[in-house]
Amino acid sequence: MVQTQDFIPSSYSQTSDSGQFTWSAPSNIALVKYWGKKANQIPANPSVSFTLSHCKTITTLAFEKKQNDGNFSFDLLFEGKPKEDFKPKIQKFLERVEPYLPFLKDYHFTIDTQNTFPHSSGIASSASGMAALAVNFMSLERLLNPEMTEEYFCQKASFLARLGSGSACRSVKGKVVVWGAHANTETSSDLFGVEFPKDIHPNFNNYQDTILLVDKGEKQVSSTVGHDLMHDHPFAEKRFAQAHQNLDKISEVLHNGNLEEFVKIVESEALTLHAMMMTSMPYFILMKPNTLEIINKIWKFRSETKIPVCFTLDAGANVHVLYPEQTKEQVLAFIESELAMHCQNNQYIVDQMGFGAELIAH
Ligand code: DP6
Fold it and tell me: Per residue in 286-310, pLDDT tens?
């Protein structure tokens, strides 16, 4: 089994004075949710997600050798302009990953990042952002150690991304990624995400995710605080056990293509996530009236048309509408005529399953 120590390099065979890479990394949407964690970003339960395609962060990492004076040195640009308020998060990330990337203080870095989705859309960019940064640092490590295998590159990129934000470790690869040790998922690990190990049924080919932007405001409660509230939560242990069972069930469904079962597991997971928030102490609600309007309309549409469209939620009010590719035309017409009116400025993003991080330039 791969252990944390396996990601601590002993020595490098090469040196590099300067250069740059550009990587994109997508967002992902969890089907079985990660909610609750232990020390060092170890999840309290396993989760599984679809990697997305269009919602991406694109990050250029430029590096230049400097004197190692015991400090990290970096400039942070967002869409080409300096962005001071993102710096503490990056500083914290560098501190966390330094044991695994011992060269970090030997370089000055310029990190230039942008998202393909609107900054104010309320879509969390931490998953795609941390994944994009992690693969860039792995590209630099591969320059210093060219013998590195592709498998090691991806596992360690996911491992580093996890230390930035848990769900980010599911954004390195596609199309379906499991993160967290799970008895019946071979190769699964708490340390990094792995590609779903079984064949995926063609029903899920290019599965669609249309993200309805219900509320773009700042969340009242951050994910970090929400995860923390699972510590003294009265239902935590039952919930963690349920996630293991739901991962068993959805693994079967992803393999056999049973969309009716898929809908049940995915919607139950979304509502359970929010039920955990509503039963924390302090309790909180991230759904908005429009979130519920949309859910009710999806249920009505599904029962009338028998199209297996369903919803899921992340830690916010936005609704992800999931449906098979061959129903796209009908579902998009329904979204445009019935659901867009519940979105801020009628905005939604049409996305679909994707393949993970991509090297754009080096
Ligand atoms: C509700 O990955 O944002 O989206 O590890 O503290 O950065 P941190 O949390 P984060 O939590 C996301 C939780 C979720 C469910 C999921 O993506 O599995």
Answer: 999 999 999 999 999 999 999 999 9
- Rounded Cα–Cα distance for residues 81 and 248 (Å): 46
* Helices 150-164 & 87-97 angle (0-180, nearest 10): 130
Question: Alpha-carbon distance 82 to 275, whole Å?
Answer: 39
Q: Compute the distance from residue 127 Cα to the ligand 1 centre, in Å.
A: 8
CATH assignment of 207-352? 3.30.70.890
Q: Maximum distance among all alpha carbons in the chain?
A: 67
> How far from 163 is each of 38, 99, 193, 239, CA to CA, in Å?
12, 12, 12, 23
Q: Which atom of ligand 1 is nearest to the CA of 130?
A: 7
For the chain, domain boundaries:
12-199+355-361, 207-352
What architecture does CATH give domain 12-199+355-361? 2-Layer Sandwich (3.30)
Ligand 1, atom 3, lies closest to the CA of: 223
pLDDT digits (tens, 9 = 90+) for 158-199: 999 999 999 999 999 999 999 999 999 999 999 999 999 999
Is the CB of residue 312 less than 8 Å from the CB of residue 320? yes
> Ligand 1 centroid to 88 CA: how many Å?
19
pTM as predicted:
0.97
DSSP 166: G
